UniProtKB/TrEMBL annotation:
It comes from Ameiurus melas. Transmembrane segments: none annotated. Pfam families: Oscp1 (PF10188). Signal peptide: none annotated. GO terms for cellular component: cytoplasm; plasma membrane. InterPro entries: OSCP1. Residues 368-377 have a biased composition (Basic and acidic residues). Residues 362-385 are annotated as: Disordered. This is Protein OSCP1-like.
Length: 385
């Protein structure tokens, strides 16, 4: 297992999350629902800017780039949920589950298709380029993204092909049990009904590689003695130029680009469930029931959250990214399970008295419910932002 895998995992999953949020928030702006919910285009921009600002801030990037073991799915989902809730938006459990499945399956597909291990960097750079395009009107965020990308270049470009292969194997092992069907992949015949991917047997070969179809034989002195051609079974082409590994440039590959930029809302639908997901268990075994209240209180104390007339009681706007009758039924079921588990919802909006009351509930039992100590430094870093 590689100790340098986590930064690429967070960057790529975070990029996919921002792609999905951008697509769904734009879809909301085009519907009549925004009138009913008090949601505006400016709110969507604020959500994107706030999340990007936390995700690419120097402290968070430096902490995530420390050599460390991979997180579990539960711990990683917890970190990404905290990241998604750094702004005024609050996602319900069902929306977060679906978004996590979309994020992970998209990145898993990109890993499976990258022709060489070093192309993981190009996939990451495509995600960074895509996020930079989403916030191109904000110079401060663009500078943050550029600085974060320079840190990634400094860390990963000296690595050997063997080290990149170890990173790729670590990522594939992390995603191996996930087989969620995604609408956009099914429509393009890129995924089978069982959730497995359709891997093409044709296309461009990596730069510097030869098109398959020729075997060379050498003698003990290293001299070429014979050639033999064979049928490769595919149609391959050579790439005339290498991709750019700089802050900007032609990445050559489209893996990691925003596949939702011209897609419909149906493309973000998922079907089936991954083995690591159990919604009832997530409600009862939430790693930190007070995490949302902590974030809301922190944002209030730091002055990063205004008072909205149309917000929920916890200080954030509730958003259903994937509204459907099935989701509403699921939410009602989860609400009943939530009451059965005895989870306390805290309205953390007043400074002194409320802060004292919340601090009194930070018991040892609450700490024991956390999935593991992994990610504590990252979560603490997010709390300080």
């Amino acid at each position: 297992m590689s100790l340098r895998t986590l930064p690429l995992l967070i960057i790529n999953l975070g990029g996919e999350m921002l792609y999905i949020l951008d697509q769904r928030l734009r879809a909301r702006n085009e519907s009549d629902e925004k009138i009913q919910k008090g949601w505006s285009e400016d709110d969507g921009k604020r959500v994107m800017n706030d999340i990007v600002g936390v995700m690419f801030c120097k402290g968070f990037m430096e902490e995530s780039m420390q050599p460390q073991d991979m997180y579990s799915h539960r711990a990683l989902r917890y970190v990404l949920t905290r990241l998604a809730h750094t702004s005024i938006m609050r996602l319900n459990s069902t929306s977060m589950d679906r978004m996590y499945d979309l994020m992970t399956m998209a990145f898993k597909y990109q890993i499976a298709l990258c022709p060489r291990p070093r192309d993981l960097l190009l996939i990451s750079f495509n995600h960074i380029d895509g996020v930079r395009e989403l916030v191109k009107d904000n110079p401060r965020l663009v500078n943050l993204i550029n600085e974060a990308q320079r840190l990634i270049i400094e860390m990963y470009t000296p690595l050997s092909d063997g080290e990149f292969q170890l990173i790729r194997q670590t990522l594939l092992a992390f995603f191996q049990d996930m087989h969620v069907r995604v609408s956009i992949l099914l429509k393009e015949n890129l995924q089978n009904a069982d959730g497995s991917f359709v891997i093409p047997t044709s296309g461009p070969v990596p730069h510097g590689s030869e098109v398959p179809g020729l075997i060379r034989y050498f003698n003990s002195r290293g001299r070429l003695v014979r050639r033999r051609e064979f049928v490769s079974g595919g149609s391959y082409t050579s790439i005339v130029r290498d991709a750019s590994f700089d802050v900007s440039g032609d990445r050559v590959t489209r893996l990691g680009a925003n596949m939702y930029s011209v897609s419909s809302a149906e493309d973000t639908h998922t079907s089936g469930s991954s083995k690591h997901t159990c919604k009832h268990q997530q409600v009862c075994d939430d790693p930190n029931p007070l995490a949302k209240a902590e974030l809301d209180l922190l944002a209030k104390l730091m002055g990063q959250m205004e008072v909205w007339d149309s917000v929920c009681a916890d200080g954030g706007m509730r958003v259903n990214l994937f509204p459907s009758d099935q989701e509403e039924d699921e939410e009602r079921r989860l609400s009943g399970a939530n009451e059965a588990c005895g989870v306390v919802n805290i309205q953390a909006v007043k400074a002194d008295a409320e802060l004292t009351r919340i601090a009194a509930q930070f018991t040892d039992q609450d700490e024991a419910e956390r999935p593991s100590d992994k990610g504590e430094d990252l979560l603490a870093m997010m709390d300080e932002l």
